[in-house]
Every structure is written in C-alpha cells, then in structure tokens.
Fold each of these.
Amino acid sequence: MTESKEQKQAIKRSNVRWLLVALMFIAITFNYADREIWVLTEPAFSVSFGWSKSGAPLSHYALMNISLILFIWSLAYAIFNFPGGWITDKLGIRKAMATFFGLWSAFTALTASTFNFISMAVVRGLMGASEGPVWPINSKVSKNWASIRDPSKAFTWAGSGQALGPIIGLAGGAALYALWGWRGVFLFFGILGILLAIAWYALSRDKPEEHPWVNKAELDYIREGKAMATEPTLRSSDTWKIALRIVFTTQAGIGVLLTFISFGYILYTFLYWLPPLMYGEFAHSVTASGYYSAAIDMALFIGFIASGPFNDWLVSRYGKVMGRRLGSIVPMSLMIAAVALSYFTGTAHELLPTALLLATAAGLMNLTVGSYAVNGFDIAPPGVTATVYGIYNGILNLMGAFNSIIIGYLFIKYGPFVGFTSAVFFMVLFLAGYLVFIRESTWKRAVDYGYKLVQTAINRA
C-alpha cells in the first residue's frame, strides 16, 4: 500500500528553524557592519573634526579621541549585555530583537549628524547600548530553535554575521565613502537596518510551537532529547540567582568565563585595530586600508562558517566535553604561532606574508566559536539561557572596552605591531580556561546543578 500525497506532505519536516537562523544572521551581520564603518571612516571624520590632517597617518590626538570613543561605545555595549539578556528572557526573542535592531540602526543613521567629540561619543554610546543584547538573543534562538544535533551550526551560522559584517562594512563602506563621503555611509546603513528590523518582527516567533509554518515533524525533531520541551519563564529574582551561581560558583562555569574574558581582548584586537594597522603601516588611505582589512576579514567569515559543522562533528565523535576541548585548544594554539610570526613579518614591512598570517590567525580564532561560545549557553539551564549568556558576553565586552584603551596606548607608545600582538597573552589565558577548569566531571556537575536550581524555582512558583 502506497502513501497518499497528503500523507507524505504531513510526514515531511518543515525547516523554519533555519529561517530563524537566517534572520539572526542578517541581524548580526548589520550589528557588526554598523560598527566597522565607524572604524573605516576614522581618518575621514578625524579630518572633518580637526583631529588629524588629510592624507597623513592618524595623529596622536586623533588616536586618543578614537580610543576614548571606542571605550565609551564598548563600555555601553558590554554593560547592556547584562540587562539585555534578562530582558530577552522576559520579552522573548521576537520583541527583543525588533526593538534593539531598530534602535541601533537609528543611532547608526544619527552618527551622520555628529560634529565633534561630545556629539560622536553620545551617539555611539547609545548605539553601543542598543547593540548589546544581540548575542544573548542568538543564544536563546539556538536554545529554543535548534535540535540537540546541531546547536553549534545554528549558533555559528547565525553568528557568522560577525565575520561577514566587517567585510560588508569595510568593502561596502569604502565604496559608499567614495560616492557620498563618511556621513552618507552611516545614513545608508542606518536606514536599511530599520527596514530589516521590521522584517524580523514580521517573520520571527519566540518558540517553534508559536510559528504557523512549523509542522509537527519539525517540532518533534527540535524537542527530541531535550530535558525540557520549552524554556520556562521564571521570576526575575530566581533568574538572576541561578545565572550568577552557574557562572561564578561552578568550576566549569568559571572555565567558560575565562575563555570569554580572553576571547574579548583577542576579538576586539582584530575588529578594531586591524584597519588602523593596515592604514598606518602599509596603505595610508581609507579606501585601500578598507579593502586590505576586508580581505583579511574574509578568513573570519570562513572560520565562523566552518566552526559549527566542525565542532558538531567533534562532539558526535568524541563527546560534548572532549569534542569542544579539541575544537578550541587546537585552533587557538595554531593562532598563537601565526600572530607571533606576523610580528616579525610586519615589522619588516612585508605586506603579503603579514596579511596571510593575520588571515590564517583570524580564521583559526573563529574556528573556536562553535566550541567556547556554545558552552556559554549550553551550560545554562532552561529559563535562564539569555541571562547566563548575557553575563558571559557582557564580561567579554568589558574586556573589549578596556582593549581600546590598552591597545591605543601601545599603538602610541610602542607602535602598531607591539599593540596588535599583545593579544598573544590572552590566547594563552584562553587555553588555560579549558585545560584547568573544563573537564567531563566539572561539566556534568555544573549542568546537573543548574537543572536542580530551575526545578526548585518552578516548584516554588
């Protein structure tokens, strides 16, 4: 007896979960493109504001002002991760992302209206606060919408916008700058972002069972193997207590914290100091430095895309903890070698080998994301996913905020390559987080403890 056409259609699984991943990818792409166009146009608005001279390397005064504004932006971004994760657990991903995407896009457009240090610092600070919750939202999308077979793919394929965004910001921004100047770049990206925020709200839902396009086969697939079919909504006091205990009182939670702290410094070094490095040492033009940096940043995108399947495969072969240890320890060790070698080729002003080494390092860095970053929400029990990830990512970005001050000083005092390669120390710290704290026994204790805390909170409510 053969199945009817209707029966076959009923059995076939829908794939709406990947629509949510795609929408999240677009949001993160613009989150990072909107940051990178600011870095790209630093020489242009520095001249416009009277901080530096046209055609010359950025002056020490310009570098000081840029470092301070980056610090303000980064501090606002980092701090708002903490309430942003909690807000996401309360509002849900649909309302949270539409709101924050629209806000940061509006402030991106308003950057075109700035005219001095104070106006730029205020607008960029507000923009940074609005961008803060994007990664806690991505963690909750992955927790709610991904099956247990592909959490790394869902998180990293959405998060690969972090790597594509700088490419679009640098290459697209360079082309738009040539047409409309630095103010036109911000207007274009800001207005387009507002339109995309509206599209997010129209197409997304908080949970799979709420989306009209999800059929039963896909819903069963997403729920299969999960201890809780859907995330509960806990009281705010319970949410914060559970999240803080997981992050700061479990050995595995502390290990995850160390990886986030160290990755923050490494990531911000590549995101915000690669264009000034290329401009000052090799290119000496906004357009050329943008294209050189975009070429290197392509490796960030490749590493991010490969990270999900790579780490899901390691987990399927070696188990969750060992697979994720291998997925971070091996690439980060190779990255240390690549960045260390780039110091010698860079100080010798060898452009091609320096660019190749930094591209290799960038790809290896993002190959770890499917391991260390997925740990940040995988260790969280249901109901506190975005809050836990918000704490981790907030601390990561606090380190990123201080990175702008530290490297700005090193650029001025010792030169670009000493500043850039200071990230090697934090690569070693990243390895320590895995080697010392994250093991099979410590991970199991942390996860069991988290579920026990959530169940107690549910029973009490």
Note: The chain is about 85% helix and 0% strand.
Amino acid sequence: MTDSGGNFEFWIDRGGTFTDVVARHPNGSLTSHKYLSENPGRYKDAAVFAMRDIMQVPEHDPFPSNKVRAIKMGTTVATNALLERDGEPTLLLITKGFRDALLIGQQHRSDLFALKPERPEPLYVQTAEVTERMTSGGDILHPLDETACKVALQQAYNQGLRSVAIVFVHAYRFPGHERKAEAIARDIGFTQVSVSHKVSPLMKLVSRGDTTVADAYLSPILKRYVDQVEEATNGCPLYFMQSNGGLAAAQSFEGKDAVLSGPAGGIVGAAKTAERAGFTKLIGFDMGGTSTDVSHYDGAYERVFDTVVAGVRMTVPMMDIHTVAAGGGSICRFEDGRFQVGPASAGAYPGPAAYGRGGPITVTDCNVMLGKLSPELFPPVFGTDGKAPLDRAATEAGFKILRDQIARETGADYTLEAIAEGFLAVAVEHMARAIKRVSVERGHDIKKYSLLTFGGAGGQHACLTADALGIDTV
C-alpha cells in the first residue's frame, strides 16, 4: 500500500443523491464511504461533513488542513443548475443587429415530427446590442461605441444583473472590442464577465455565443460552491474533475467545463479498472440515484466538441456520455393506464419511501420489495434523524397504495412483487435503449463488448440490462 506522506487524501463524487468518498489514511490504507448528498437536519455540505467525519474532527473545531494532502472532487452542481434552470441571471451583450442570433440558433429540431415543437428557454434574461463591427479580415467597419456600451451595461447592473456574456462578431480572431467592453463591465462592478474570445475562441457566432452564455450562467453558481468548500477546508489543495476527464485547480474550474464533471470521472475510472482486468471493449454503465450515464470505450476515450446538454448547445471538449433519467431514486407511478418510471427523482431528500422520510415509491423501493436490497445490510443512516435503518414497511405501504390505484383504474389484481417487477422492466428498457444509442446505432457489435457497471444502483440492474441487450460479460 502506498504511503500518503502522513496526511489524508480524499477523492469525492458528489452526486444528485449520494456523495461517495474514497479516503487514503496517513498509514496508506484506503476506505470508502457513502453519505446522502442532502441532509439539512445534519449538515450543510455532504463533502465537507464526510471529510470531518472520516478524520473524526468535531463540528465546531477548525478543519485540519495541515493533515490533508489533497482533495479531488467531481460535482453535479453545474449539471443540476442547467437541468433546473437555477443559474445566475445573465445579460447578453452582442453586436448590433444580432440580438436574436442565439435565439434563432442553428434551426436544429430535436423532434423532427413534433406538431408543436418547443424551443428551450434561453439562459440569458436580457439582451443589449452595441454598435461595433469587425470584418473577418480584421478591418474596423464600426468602432465600438464605448458610451452606449457603458450605458447598456449600467442599466443592466442597476436592474440587479451581475453576470454578463459578451459576444461580438469575429471576436474569436480580433478580440479588441470585446476586451474594451470587458474592461467597462468590470469597472461598473459585474462580478462575472465571460467574453467569447476567451471562453470559446472558435469561428461561428452562434456556437461561440451559446458556450459563452452558458459559462456566464453557470460560473457564479460554481464559484460560490468552490469558495464554500475552500473556506470550509481552510484552503486545502482542491481539484475538480472537468467534463473532458481532466482535473483543474479549484480557481481554474469554470462553468463551461463543469457540466459533466461527475460522469466524466466515472468513465476514466471504469476504463483504467477494466484494463487491469484485461478488457478493452467496454460499455460503461453508471447508474446512480438520479440518472444513468452510459458510454462507449474501445481503447480510447470518446470526446465530443459540439453537444447539447439539458437543451443548451455548447462547444467545449467533453466526454461522450448519454444520460437517461433512470436512477435508483426515479419515481415509479401508474398513469394513463401504464407503468412509468422517471424522469422525476426523489433525490436524497426526502428520497425513496424506504428512507423513512415520507418519500414516493422509486426504483430503489422496487428492489427492497423484491428482496434484492436487504435493510439489515445497510448502515442506519436513514429516517428523519439519520440514524434509522431502511424502512421496508414504508415501501410495502407505498406499493399497497399503487396496487389499490391499479385495481380501481384497470380491474387488475397484481401482487406487490409483480408491480415492482413491472416497474423494474420499464427502467431496464430505458437503460437498454440508452446503451443502444452509444453502440448499436453507431455500428458497434454490442455482443463483442463487456458491460462495466458502477454507481450506487448499477449492480442491482446490470444483469437485467445485459440480458436485454444480449451482452454475455458483466
């Protein structure tokens, strides 16, 4: 076992439902731990609480930063902000005449045959146009109207906006006007200024602009979380996993690079683990509490540079990951005469019914009902006080309500176990379909691959999913 230099070292995956921690102790031993990502009655931040708990540091004592060598973390903070549209209110400052360019977008339709297509809401809440224009060769058609620029920025600032995305035509190559506008914005007091020639220095206004807006929208949320962790850990060396699979120092971690922070780390770990066991053709199957992330690996990491995440177009390098809203916490319900699973999740709080906090029936409860999850094998971290075991009685009560609803609406009399199996079959189909997206639909013979499963709920569903796809090795 490698010695850690007399200090602790932490690797943390903060997911939507659980926060998982691997700790290297001063003697070199490794231990793994699991905490609920949200537990308002016990702690403010799961990652910080976990490290204190592992080092046995009392809540009100200073964090012993001298005893920690490094903290390396993957987080879903940016992902959740996109999914829930809970980022920073942002101003878009753009070349005059291009106010609607990002709204029009690339005219791609996610559902080609929809009778009433719906366009995702833009991330920016306000747009201001500025007179300026550079040619593609660098000639100034119109100099930047600095007075008008200052007025527009000041008006937005007075209305409470503190984040601005600056996107000018041809600025990827000739950024002079953007730099002047950036200086004006900072002088006025904007705390987040994202300029396109730094965020995404590529041609094509729309893709560059979309990425810049996403950065301005997400970076303040991310920075607040990073600052919170840094403050709580007394300035320990802190690193975050980026969407492209690499690590970045905390203060270099930006919104545009954080969207797939958590899932990207899973792919890297899965590939390295499989190579040690002699497997190189892999389907990554990462099933957590909120979603399932699937990926394809054939000796090299697959990355994309132009992708859509939660309806937002972004042009940044990131791991090629396909996500479906089917996790251990996905809510199971009977609607419109059929069993439905997800996309809504019970999250960590209140969580599944089995957590004993009044939550709904979820995929996790299906496994409790079928005996695949044994309450006695789980630590007592549930209930309102965080000290109770899994509550099988609460799960059974929830399934009885579903059974009565199904009987009323259809006349069918199912056992509780049959209902649980039905919901699991739906969930497995969701996940199998996602795997086909990254394999069969791209011309790969899935029977030549192994299914490498990880994530808190992966082991419970890997074999069912492999059977549905005809994969022999798990």
Note: The first strand starts at residue 8 and ends at 14.
Amino acid sequence: MLPDSIAGRTMIVLLIGLTLSHIASTWVLSSDRHDTLIETSERLCADHIAVIAHLIERASPQDRGAIVGGLGGALTEITLSDQPKVGLIHQDEEELSLMQTALQPYFGAVEHPRLHVVHHRTESGEQAGFWRNLAAGFPHDRIMQVSFQLESGTWVNFDMAMVRAATLWSPHAALSTLVMMVAVLVFGTWATGWVGRPLATFATAADRLGRDVNAPRLPEGGPREVRRAVAAFNEMQSRIRRFVEDRTQMLAAISHDLRSPITRLRLRTELLPEGEGRDKMLRDLDEMETMVASSLDFARGEAVDETTETIDLAATLEAICDNAADMGLAAEFEWERRLVCACRPAAIKRALANLIENAARYGRQAKVRAHATDQAVEVVIEDSGPGIPEAELDKVFGPFYRVEGSRNRKTGGIGLGLTVARGIIRAHGGNILLQNRQEGGLRVTVTLPQEGVP
C-alpha cells in the first residue's frame, strides 16, 4: 500500500529512484573496474611467464629443475614435460596474442603450435556455504594456463592464478547502497517535510476558515508559487467575509426597519373598535413581530465577531435548563463532570438554548447529557414528543420551515430556531444530527470539535 501523505509518496519515489540509480552506477563502475583489473592482471601474468620461460631457456638442462622448483609457489605452478599440458584450443584469440606479445622480446615471433593458452574460471567459495558466498558476492578466481615449447623441444607448463575478479555484489557495494538509502531517508524526510509544510498550513487554514471567516490572514512567505497561493487564499477569505457581513447586515437592517411600521400598525389597530377583525389583526402583528425578532436572532447567529474562549460547557447547559424550568418548561441536565470547551460562549449558549427550549416546548420535556471524547464534546438532547417524519429531518433546518402537528405556530415559533442553532454549531466546525428514538421522541446530537483543549 502506498503512503497516504504527499511526503510519504515523495519519499518512496526518491528512495526507489535513487536506489536504482545508485545500483546502476555501481554496476557501470564495477564493470569498468573489472575489465581494467582483468586486463592488467593478464598482462602481468603474461610478462611473468615470459620472463620465467626466458630464464629456463637460458639455463642448462641440469639447472632447469632447480629454477622451476624455486620460482613455483602457491599462486604459480611450473612443470616441465615432453608433451603440452594445455590443449590446442583457445577460448579467445586475444589470450593467445597477449602471450605472443609478451614472449616476442625474448623468443621473437612465436608460432601458434609452440604456444597453447587457456583461461579457467573457478569458484573459490564452493566449500564456504551459500550465505557466506552470498555475503562475499559469490567470488571466483581466474587461472591462466600456458604451455610453451622451448627451443630444445621441452614444454614448460604454467598454472598461474590471476587477480580475483571483482563482482557487483559485495559487502562494500551493499554497505554503500545502505548508506545511500539511510541518507535519502534522513535528508528526504527533512526535505519533503519542508516542501509539504505549506500544504499542511493550507489545510489548517481552510479548516479554520470554515469555523471563523474572521481568522487571521496567512503570512505570505516561502517560494513564489506558495506566496501566490497564499495571496489567493487570503483574498478568497476576504471575499467570503465581506459576503457574510453584507448578507448579515442586510438581514439585520431589514428586520430592524420593519419594526417601525409594525409598531405604527399596532398603534392604529389598537385604536379600532373591539371586535373579531381587530383581534385577528393584532395576532398577525404579533406574528410579524416574532418573525422580525427571530430574523434578528438569526442575523446575530450568523455574525462571528465574538472571541473564542474556554468555558465549562456543563455549567452553561445547567444554566440553560434552569432558565427553561423558570419558564415553566420541563428541562433536566444530567450532570457528570466539568466539560472544558473552546467556543464563542454567547453564540453557543444561544444555539443550545434554542435546542433545549425547542425540545421542552414541543416534546413535553428535555433530557440533556454531555460528555467529552478525545477530539470533541458531544451534547445529547432527548424529548418525549411525537418526533419528526424521517423525510423532514433535514428540511427542518431550513429558514422558516415548520413541521405540521404539535410543532407549529399555534404553540409558538416561526421556524428559525434550528436554522440559527445549526449555523452557530457549524461555524464552530461542529455538526448537529436529528434522530427519532425507537421508544418515541426526538434525539438531537451536537458535536463540537476541540483541538488542544485539556
């Protein structure tokens, strides 16, 4: 599975690419070193054989045995015979020509029948075992076998070990690759973290913008591309803030300006003779005033100028339930412990008050409980009312939407309470969920994310 982060995937690409490049470079260098080493070894062995052959040629037949015995050793075996030890088969004509070139200063042009040359490759670690051979790169030795006929007709035979051939796979090559991989991991981790830090900053800023359009602007620093992206993000934030402020101010202004004509209509209506028509007009004016007041509350809920503070949410919930009880509503809070919550106190109190009073007023009673998780505070409000049809659970958050039945204007409300509550909660980066309980009634679950709150 590929890593989920850009830094992790970049590290994989760097590690694989540089490792393959390092192995290819090692192979090229090892091949060049191998060819050079073998060629040098062959020339040295040919010169050594030519010198020894010249010494034996110049020595008397009685002294040749002593020379052969004295010059032979662990790496060089020299024998004299009447027949060549090496057959007249050559693996490579270059092997023969190299030996002829070495013998020419001492014997002149040497014809092919007088000179037999063959190279053998032997595995030097056959008894070492597989793992030791693997660690050593399966080493092998090269042996030059030469049979040369002297002027007297005697053949001098040479078995001479050459320099061990270099292999690509060796402990040094493996160590070099390992050091390179460690270096890539160390410096690559730092580099990808440095390059990816602006993306993490953007993600944090975007999440913060969803909660607070008045959040501080991002500092415009870093490479040119990052500065351009930061400038565009800051401009987008400014446009969103202006849009929200203009809409909120317009709604508040309209609601405020409607109060004056409504007040004049009420005064004129109260001067009318008492009757059914006058009472209906007064009820309509009451409803209009309620709508205006609710619209102002909605506009205030959209405003996010309030400073975020750390409060005890349990104490706030208990105060809301006490106020609802003072109003004659059945509201009960199940106190467990202190709940530390970072929020805009007045806004969150207005949202929770709307939900609790709504449950107590339309659902006969409100039972409230709250608890904290690792990253959020969760508030659950349950009532014993008729609930809400499943098809309308999401529609009730729309402005001025009312559910028929017990939740209608005859019992108060114009359909903005849930809209205001959800707007405030979402401005905190949280969410609100409505569910019908199996035993009857409605369950409202409010989730408020918390970061860095003890």
Note: The first strand starts at residue 76 and ends at 81.
